[in-house]
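To assess whether ligand presence alters the predicted conformation, the chain was also submitted together with magnesium ion. Input:
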Amino acid sequence: MKTVIFRADDPQTPKKAAEIIRSGGLVAIPTETVYGLGANAMDEAAVAKIFEAKGRPQDNPLIIHISCAAELERYCHDIPDSAYLLAERFWPGPLTMVLPVRDCIPKRTTAGLDTVAVRCPKTAVTRALIAEAGVPIAAPSANLSGKPSTTTAAHVLHDYGTDGRIDAIINGGACEVGVESTIVDLTGARPRLLRPGGVTPEELRALLGDLEIDKAVLEQISNDTVVRAPGMKYRHYAPGAEVYIVTGSSEAAAAYVRKRFTDGDAVLCFEEELPLFDGCNPTAYGKSSDVRTLSAGLFAALRALDRPEIKTIYARCPEGGGVAYAVGNRLKKAAAFRCVDAEAEL
Ligand code: AMP
Ligand code: MG
């Protein structure tokens, strides 16, 4: 069986893709964050296919996608006021909330947790698909497990091919945000950031008045640790090469890399730095003067650098809060938190 490719701007797409979802199939869906690999969240057998296709560890729960905030109560209970505040301000958009789950969502979807992660994506065709299907769509990032996320339909095709490993892909072009959603856990005494994304810690704090940052955001978590967001402990977002983050000024970083550069090395840098890294196999992922270009371009660049001949990647990472915090988090995870300070090492 062949994988069908739907156009996002074809008015028939939500209906056709919804038939596949309702009959237990897999559809790769565009969202403003990254492409997701979607199935009916209420159908255990369909959800099992997601884990199988991705090679995803069974203890890594899925995010369910709904078409509007009004659907929240169908799948969650004991919803705090903060959830409604967040939904009103940030939905549809790149924010996922963790809330107590109702029994209608199978254990396979939540990896046995008594909570579920829920999001209402911004991309219109995907919301239309969810509404048409009449069920929530469970969708992790569409990449093969452990690989950088997919931000174009071509990335999804690259990972799964066209021979029917997944039933369909909706081609909605390149994702606007480019990194996965912000995840905030609302089930504890204090709201807790489990994963930074397009909705920033500053925006969350301004609305909620409080926000704890989970340990998994800040450091590498070992595989046997119990964590709030199980997915955060796995090596993630990573190309085959070893990634090192090089901090310090552009000039110091370029001098540091030049001193060590050998065959099999590559550089992931800001557009403004390309001339400085000339001769060191540089790839730019966006402009340091516009962090949204960095988030939009990060995974495509990591994928482009995922080649067997590349053994080491020296990466430049934006610093600070806002969206830079999310970009920095993904890059640090890709680097397993290996950072070198070019100014100190010169
Ligand atoms: P992905 O779909 O690849 O973006 O991964 C989904 C992320 O959401 C993973 O890091 C999961 O661990 C996290 N997640 C999903 N459900 C829950 C939940 N109920 N509680 C905490 N984290 C969750
Ligand atoms: Mg993922």
